[in-house]
């Protein structure tokens, strides 16, 4: 089961939707139009590569180990990626380096955040939503490799402003 979170509504609650299986997620924005195919294609490749990495390495390693292996798989799959990309804040028309770093940015469109924690918490979702807002990307994929089966709770698809 993949759970998708969208930016908080005016009441401050996250909009949560459940989607079945990898092939079953197609997000719609307020105009009821599907995501661009590029983002869906990228997301599908990311999930496939993450499943391969998790199958090979299993749970329990450091986040950096999964990051290196996933970056290798994504490049092998033909995606253009940037690892540990700095994400500045624009304040008063000045670009400031606040220390934010995106784990992996795929095709300049999809943010991939890796975790190796017991469970994903709201703070991890909030972090991804912040990255999506600052980068103006539409889609983020949050991966927790510290689970027995990545398909069961280790993948979160998070949408920005849809």
* Major beta sheet summary: 7 strands, mixed
Shape: globular
Mean pLDDT: 83
The count of domains is 1
What sequence of helices (H) and strands (E) makes up the elements?
EEHHEEEHEE
| Percent helix range | 25-40%
Structural class: alpha/beta
In whole angstroms, the N-to-C terminal distance is 20 Å
List the quaternary state of the chains. single chain
Residue ranges: pLDDT <50 for 5 or more in a row?
A: 7-36
Tell me how many strands there are: 7
Explain this structure.
Helices cover 30% and strands 31% of the residues. It is an alpha/beta fold and 162 residues long. It has one domain. A seven-stranded mixed β-sheet has the order 2-1-7-6-5-4-3, with helices on both faces. A hairpin with an 8-residue loop joins strand 1 (2-6) and strand 2 (15-19). Helix 1 crosses helix 2 (63-76). The longest helix has 21 residues, at 37-57. The radius of gyration is 15 Å and the shape is globular. The model is unreliable at 7-36 (pLDDT under 50).
